[in-house]
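A reminder before we start the practical. When you read a complex entry, don't treat the lines as separate problems. The point of joint prediction is that each chain is placed relative to the others, so the output describes one connected object in space. Small molecules and nucleic acid strands, if listed, are placed in the same frame. In the example below there are two entries. Take a minute to note the order of the lines before looking further.
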Amino acid sequence: MEAEFLRWLRERTPKYPGLRLGLTDDAALVDLPGAGAVVATVDMLTDGVDFHLREVDPRRVGRKSLAVNLSDLAAMAARPLAALVAVALPRDGSAALARELYEGLLALAEEFETPIAGGDTNTWDGPLAISVTLLGIPSPAGPLTRSGARPGDHILVTGQFGGSLLGHHFDFVPRVREALYLAQNYPLRAGIDVSDGLSLDLSRLAAASGCGAWIDPRLVPIAPSAHAMANQRPESGTPLEHALGDGEDFELILALPPDAADRLLADRAVGTTLTRIGQFVAEPGLWQSLADGSRAPLVPRGFEHHSTASR
Amino acid sequence: MEAEFLRWLRERTPKYPGLRLGLTDDAALVDLPGAGAVVATVDMLTDGVDFHLREVDPRRVGRKSLAVNLSDLAAMAARPLAALVAVALPRDGSAALARELYEGLLALAEEFETPIAGGDTNTWDGPLAISVTLLGIPSPAGPLTRSGARPGDHILVTGQFGGSLLGHHFDFVPRVREALYLAQNYPLRAGIDVSDGLSLDLSRLAAASGCGAWIDPRLVPIAPSAHAMANQRPESGTPLEHALGDGEDFELILALPPDAADRLLADRAVGTTLTRIGQFVAEPGLWQSLADGSRAPLVPRGFEHHSTASR
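Here is the predicted structure of the whole assembly.
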């Protein structure tokens, strides 16, 4: 539904001069009258879809509800400014649940110096739903978007991919600090965070930039949990397939000119492993190199369960 | 739960220099590095609490989800800048429901020149929940808060009160234009919107300002629907009781110095009826004048179903 709905929504939405990025990137960019701009993003997590409340400590749910938004801001190289939290709590034990959610949320908020500026705490007969809106400001280098990659740019990724469902999707550290450092020190051309799958989100970045992307599958950093999932259920795919399609890695995909990519890969100050997995190409689509050196199409895989309209 | 939870949350939240109003007023005021500030508020509406989806056109639900936030901005005399929408849709018929919600929402957004900057559209096994975050900028006169009323200031209200449940709570026009006009032309000292009940929200405004409030009940503008509800169910209270305690009127309570109040009441440019119903007094608490001219305590009445932490 999401892609079609987004098309409908974009058509229905009038153009506003102050809205520079809306419904296209990981977050919206809203100009302020006078000067400056604000980056804003929202994500809602729901019981039974993004987590199962029976099986997880609510603190991890609260943490994740903010973390996914921090990841969206990282994708734009924006600095977090303040968060607003709306929550619908099941009636039974709602007071205790609210506190546990907030304990997880506040701990991460403090880590990223992000005040909770407002909230709306409701009780109802439905399951738990929690929605966080995060405001930020673009880095001095300007907002990073999905549309700036050019053929020849190298594709760099942070961290490792696959098997996030085993726990990483709750406990990941959003790449905010890395994004701010990189945006300040390197000519980043485009960025996106991997929420729906490395191959799917890379194909989105390439499409938004009007080019294609080629990767060498042997270079993709595969998380230990991707191996674990492939071992547990071999029919679920190879470790590489998990890495390319699982999603919820919340790592960054970045586009940089080759020389900048070289410098960045030699930079020990980043703190997070960066890996070059391929490059952007003129021909649209997603491509992979095979063992014999030839190129073949790579079908983007991933899921849409977050369905963020601003993504 | 809400008041106690808010106390707990305020204690748990570290102080941030950039957050001038958080968890106290109708909206938060967030300073931007450099210059300027953003006003932000969030409200979530849930099926079975704020509306009954079986009984109402989803367009009215979508409209209300934005309207309640516009009302919060009006209470701060802030101009709307952009909205973000997160929605959890019941699986059955979710695509049609999403469009209907947005049709109501977009129509009101256009009326108030407010772009929908981002969204998150989810489908789940739960009932409908919709959360709107609204960003705004303070009027040139600065943000209107709850804490600026002084003893001697007059109490003015927009519109009429009571019986909102008969339909007004869906169809009210948020007092954004009025608030901006008034903030620009009059020395408004404090403001709040009536979401939970005229008497309850007035008592909150007075308490935040460190004073009390006295009203003449005969001056309270009573809506026709308050009379209708009292007629339908006499045991539910008198029309005046409905006006004082029903809530969801989404009218403004304003504090002004007496001479400014006089000028304002003679101003035909406002477009909305304003009524003087009393004044702020030094003695804390809420007071009413009786028929014999004496004063008696007035017990604040209202409901907390919105439970907005930022309110």
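Discuss with your neighbour: The longest helix of chain B spans residues 58-75. What might explain this?
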